[in-house]
Amino acid sequence: MTEFLNKLLSWYQANARDFPFRRTTDPYLIWLSEVIMQQTRIEQGVPYYYSFVKVFPTIHELAGASEEEVLKQWQGLGYYTRARNLHSTANEIVEKYGGRFPESYESLRELKGIGDYTAAAIASICYRLPHPVMDGNVIRFITRHFGITGAVDLAATKKEIMEVLEELMDGVQRFPKGYNASGTAAGSPLGEASIGAKHFTQAASGSAKRDRSGGVKMRANVGDRSSLAEEPSHNSLYPGKFNQAMIEFGATYCVPRNPECRECIFNESCIALKYGMVEKLPLKKQQQALKPRYFHYLVISVWGMKGVYFRKRTGNDIWKGLYEFPLIETSKPVTLPRLVNSIEWKKYFGKTPLKILSQTGSISHLLSHQKIIATFYSLEIEKPSEKFGSLIHPKNIHELPVARIIEKYLEGVRGDK
Question: Measured between alpha carbons, how far is 82 from 23 in angstroms, rounded to an integer?
């Protein structure tokens, strides 16, 4: 265990990427970064982090903003429930705690939108509490190294992974004072492979496959990383450092496909490598096919007037609070003549005179559990009507928070890249 931690923390000290949220222990900034980076590639998330901090530098500014302002800043990140929970939680912390974050894992966990992972990240990084984080990167690293072969979307397997992490975190807490993550520490190394042995229940026969193509190469020391570990004795910071190191190693080295196992610092103790199971772990239950939804967006303008109609989604679904064109949803693909003769179309237009100017082809947009297949119809009516929503002038459309699929359509209409 000690040898594992020595290697991991020394690797992190030399190879950790330098992000702004790794230079702070401010719980607001850590919370913001964790929520933004959930289900988002870090390359995409960092610009949003900068934008959010610029617009909402403190939790008081975030709490004082309108939901539309928050959703607009979030536009393009997807999973908009995160943004709504972010705003709601900011208000709760300001009203209930005077703008100060609770300082225990249990109290953090009670806040809306803060789950086990985010609570553990804040508790360990900001308050130095020994709570392991478990995200996809950590799960991949742990299941491979310690040979955990259960399906990781099962509660029993998650519990098994957490037991390993807690054992490692306990080792972090018992590190001797004065250890400085330089690769040296007092005490005799404990063979970490013995931890994995009790978790390894199944192995494929055959030699280990060491694929060196792709992956992220181990880098040499990239320069002074003192900003990541400034204290002469940073034993007290180990819970947060350990969590960040686990995530970083999984994200940049123990990658999903073609990791460079031959160069890995853990190649002698990795059970998945020993038994040729690197590409098979982590194991998941067979995933269900994405559910298709067919959206027919009606881009309605009024003859002689500038602008198109938008409506705010109020239903409790994926894009609640965002703006979109009037919509007809069908359970299967339909032709334009069939759409025009549908009950939904007649509810919208009745005997209203209109012109159908154009329509796009089908545009697919993938979400976590569903696939949106959208078609946009450009229509023109003779007289304005509030039943279609609000007529928005072209110069004001950019102010509306919209889903990415709407944004992409608007970019095409305006000729944006």
Answer: 24
Length of the chain: 417
3, 34, 279, 386: the active-site residue: 34
Tens of pLDDT, residue by residue over 49-78, are 999 999 999 999 999 999 999 999 998 888
> Is 280 a domain residue?
no
172 and 123 in a single domain? The answer is yes
34 given a catalytic annotation: yes
Other CB atoms within 10 Å distance of the CB of residue 51: 13
**Facing residues of 302 across strands?**
381
Token pair in block for residue 53? 């901090």
Predicted confidence (pLDDT) per residue in 339-384, tens digit: 999 999 999 998 888 999 999 998 888 877 788 999 999 999 999 9
In a domain, 30, yes or no: yes
Residue 260, number of CB atoms within 10 A of its CB: 19
Q: Are 138 and 253 in contact (CB under 8 A)?
A: no
Model-level pTM? 0.71
Orientation angle between helical segments 238-252 and 155-173, nearest 10 degrees: 130
CATH of the domain at 124: 1.10.340.30
Residue 321 token pair: 């609070």
For residue 20, the tally of other CB atoms under 10 A from its CB is 12
Assigned token pair, 332: 């299967």
The CATH number of whichever domain residue 400 belongs to comes to: 3.90.79.10
Domain interval for residue 309: 291-414
Strand pairing partners for 380? 301, 355
Token pair, residue 378, equals 């450009």
When divided into structural domains, the chain yields a total of: 2
- d(C-alpha 89, C-alpha 107), whole Å: 13
